[in-house]
């Protein structure tokens, strides 16, 4: 089943200065539910130091403005828990001409307390070379050491488009598909607005035309990277009430296909769906493991609000049992959606299982095999299917032999079971009804010695059939 989702949202009425955002992050982080530990966020700054960064932007060189604002940002991030930074620079080693498309280097790798090294490197960059954006993204693969559960973020700051032969869009998508990074952020300094299409495929793109907008854009980016966003999953019953619960849920990264969260849906002590803290920078495919599963193909969380993810998941219960005895307990039967051949679930006789409301077909591997169709599951109701207790039929003879059992119906017989040729006596649980045995002693070497016996099986009663 697939369902669409509408996330109602509102944006912040105003943009806080990012220095104020940083000062509140520690308080916010203390409110995060301990169920999911706060991950380490690793931010790689990919910084443009190509020749064009020496150009004027207002009354100052672009490089001077960019380095000053980025240093201020590094100062603020230095005080934030669960954050590590690194710096990759391109266009700063080889002058143009000639064009050196390999001019990209990780200047400061990820490590705790490395803000001073990043500041020092930024202060002494001299714009020289070309703009190998794709090449820098390729090299960034190696900039993130193995770290299960870490959030890997790239913030690209550039005043130009790709100058070499690479395809930044393809590289960015490949990194995301492989689960190496989340969708990057790109800040274009003084670029032509027409370049938006060029960078939109790389990541979240911000085009800034002056120093104030640049500082503002960086504040927005860092707020998006570090702010906490909450959500809840409402599993709706037939009446639209969010009361269904205790179901496993899997959030898959929609780009990489990888599992991001495996959770069991819970109602809190007030009877409301529990609050989740999941990464809002990822677009998800949500699978709710009801039977059959409920699937939401696209879930986008909006930063700064409490997101409601609603899915229709009305459920009821099914129990297949015998009237009195326990001979069939723990036998698995097959459940299918009405009219379909694919097995949806294997359920034990005597146990209760939960299903999405609707009609189902049952196949129960008894002797003879039972097919019960159009079994209806109703909201919050237990549907009970009773099957007759079996009769106990013992087949006994002086020697081993070859025998088959048939269900007798008006004008036809249906093969249902073969006796074992390896034993002289065997007991079979059989449903009430009329049957026929066709048997030949293994020592009898002529077909004429085949015997036929018709018999009737009563529920709960023993019966002995002599094989002679």
Architecture blueprint of SSEs:
Elements: E1 2-3, H1 18-30, E2 41-48, E3 56-57, E4 60-61, H2 62-77, E5 83-90, E6 104-111, H3 115-123, H4 133-140, E7 151-158, H5 168-177, E8 185-189, H6 196-200, E9 204-208, H7 211-226, E10 230-236, E11 248-253, E12 259-264, E13 284-288, E14 294-299, E15 306-312, E16 315-322, E17 332-337, E18 345-348, E19 352-356, E20 358-364, E21 370-377, E22 382-387, E23 391-396, E24 401-409, E25 412-418, E26 425-430, E27 433-441, E28 451-457, E29 462-466
Parallel strand pairs: 1-14, 2-5, 2-7, 7-8, 8-9, 10-15, 16-22, 23-29
Antiparallel strand pairs: 3-4, 5-6, 11-12, 11-13, 13-14, 16-19, 17-18, 17-20, 20-21, 23-26, 24-25, 24-27, 27-28
Helix pairs in contact: 1-7, 2-3, 2-7, 4-5
Task: Explain what the structure shows.
This protein folds into four domains: 36-226, 3-Layer(aba) Sandwich (Rossmann fold), CATH 3.40.50; 230-312, Sandwich (Immunoglobulin-like); 315-387, Sandwich (Immunoglobulin-like); 391-466, Immunoglobulin-like (Sandwich). 16% of the residues lie in helices and 38% in strands. The chain is built from seven helices and 29 strands. It has helices at 18-30, 62-77, 115-123, 133-140, 168-177, 196-200, 211-226; strands at 2-3, 41-48, 56-57, 60-61, 83-90, 104-111, 151-158, 185-189, 204-208, 230-236, 248-253, 259-264, 284-288, 294-299, 306-312, 315-322, 332-337, 345-348, 352-356, 358-364, 370-377, 382-387, 391-396, 401-409, 412-418, 425-430, 433-441, 451-457, 462-466. The strands form eight sheets. The protein has a six-stranded mixed β-sheet, sandwiched between helices. Helix 1 runs parallel beside helix 7 (211-226), helix 2 (62-77) packs antiparallel against helix 3 and helix 4 runs parallel beside helix 5 (168-177). The radius of gyration is 34 Å and the shape is elongated.
